[in-house]
Amino acid sequence: MQLHWQFFFGALISLVTMTNPLSKIPMFISLTQNMSEPRRQHQAIRASWIAFLIMTVCLIAGNVILSVFGISYGALRVAGGIVIGLLGYRMLYHLQDPGMAPKAAGTRNRNDYAFFPLAMPAIAGPGTIAVVIGLSTEIVEKPTLTGKAVTFALTLAAIAVSSLVMWMTLRSSTMISERLGRSGQEVMARLMGFVLICVGIQFIGSGVRTFIAGS
């Protein structure tokens, strides 16, 4: 049970760090600045809900996708670790905000940004999907059916909690932005970038161990 809860908190920290709610505040404020407050709240809850559904689908179908393309669990973890580590490096050195997707043409006249670009790719982007699929491979490798069921439930709970954190951050985006200021947001972004690098290295190490065990 202790190992299961360690898995839950590890998954939760990985997901919250990868989605990086604070980094989505500038994008959310920019996209919704001309909306009424009820409309902004609606966009926040829809974006978080859609991101939750995307991550849940990846958790369920992740192993199917791997088998279709003939990708081993070790390869997925190493590749995902590299992607996550690079995103963390960019965040740490402020080269580019991985959560800030370029605006598509014509977005100025739109009044719904919940799916694109908020839910995807800002929240449930490539790095987040890599984390979720990586977690799904660890679920499959559990030796017992009970262990798989419990681990799946805990991972789903971690996805739900991370989506809830995202929603709470977006709905309070104006207040948080005023409290933190630009320097505070940069400090948090760099701190989360360092954590992402650690998560990426952990994924790579797990992938290498899987390769060695399978050889």
From TrEMBL:
Membrane topology: Multi-pass membrane protein
Main localization category: membrane
Listed InterPro entries: Multi_antbiot-R_MarC
The UniProt record lists the keyword Transmembrane: yes
Subcellular location: Cell inner membrane; Cell membrane
Keywords: Cell inner membrane, Cell membrane, Membrane, Transmembrane, Transmembrane helix
Keyword Hydrolase listed: no
Residues annotated as transmembrane: 6-23, 44-65, 71-92, 113-137, 149-170, 191-212
Family classification: Belongs to the UPF0056 (MarC) family.
NCBIfam families: NAAT family transporter, PRK10995.1
Protein name: UPF0056 membrane protein
Natural source organism: Jeongeupia chitinilytica
Encoding gene, per UniProt annotation: marC
